[in-house]
Amino acid sequence: MRSLALGFLCVALARRAAVTQHRQAVSQDPEEVDGTDARLDKFPDCKTIPTFPGKCPIQDHPGACFRTDQKQWSCWSEWEVKSGEDCQMMTLNDEIVGFEGACFYNGAWTHDGDGEVTSGPKNVTEAEVPDCFDVDKCLAECHPITDKWGACYLDDDSGIDRAERCMCAMIPGEGAGRESIDVLLKGACTTMQVGYQDLSYSKLCKFPDEGPQPVYKCDTIPTYNSRNSAVACNPGAGSEFACFSLARRVPWQCGSSLTKNPSCRTTTLVPEGEEFFDGACVMKESPDYAVALEYEEP
Question: What is the pLDDT of residues 234-276, one digit of tens each?
């Protein structure tokens, strides 16, 4: 119980320090009032406010009236820009709401300084999205990748539970589901909250569109040994399919051809591990052996 209380205290102190640091940073500008810029031609970036994750999605809102106490923000419509003073004076049932100021998604949206949004949200093309394998992100977290389009990921995921490290995006169905990908291309990852933390995802990556994984003949894999049960699965027991490793002394993952693992390349060698199998193969007894590929050294 004592350790739990200390944990909550540490989180509260860290959050208070982040809020204080933000207020000190914005108050250095002599044209700002109470830590909030009263002009329309300059705003703090909403992503510098400690409580921004999960509040106002960047793909839908150019800015917001914000609070730093975890309560709800007031998200702006695409056509509106408010001043910090406007936000501070907002009322509900004749009482001041308590918004601390106004912020804008600088760089994603633009405005003319007179209260009109001029462009946004900034969009990227699929060609500009990096390969998840190249950035080495979300491979295990989004397994199997054969039905995933891509994922939102964290630049630094140390200390984050694996279940929260990535937000996986499914491959759109025929004629439907494309809207979710378009939202991601508009920067949705950068304001999407990670679990219940004051943290958002950093970037977006895309899985290669390779179709079904290639399946090889197991006896052509360099590390195969028919006398080693760690790599020679038992077809008699229904295990004529395997995820194989090219590393010596690494046991293969055996299974059935009827329920084969659809993505061996994103299957970790051990649970919660960081290393992956290299590919899929079938034993001679498998009905798929005749159409399986001969493995060749890259």
Answer: 888 889 999 999 999 999 999 998 889 999 999 999 988 889 9
Rounded Cα–Cα distance for residues 71 and 64 (Å): 13
Helix (H, G, I), strand (E, B) or coil at 92: strand
Strand, coil or helix: 216: strand
Q: Which residue has the higher pLDDT, 23 or 280?
A: 280
CA 90 → CA 21, 45, 83, 87, distances in Å? 25, 20, 11, 5
pLDDT digits (tens, 9 = 90+) for 9-30: 343 444 444 434 444 443 334 3
The CA-CA-CA angle for residues 114, 118, 122, to 5°, reads 135
Distance (Å, whole) CA 34 – CA 104: 17
Cα angle 105, 123, 108 (rounded to 5 degrees) comes to: 15
Bond from prior residue into 144 cis (ω within 30 degrees of 0): yes
The C-alpha atoms of residue 240 and residue 213 are separated, in whole angstroms, by 17
pLDDT digits (tens, 9 = 90+) for 159-211: 999 999 999 999 987 655 678 899 999 999 999 999 988 899 999 999 998 88
For 95, other C-beta atoms within 10 Å of its C-beta total: 7
Longest dimension (CA), the chain: 82
Query: What are residue 215's DSSP bridge partners?
Result: 280
Distances in whole angstroms, Cα of residue 88 to Cα of each of 42, 45, 169: 16, 17, 38
H/E element holding 10? helix 2-26
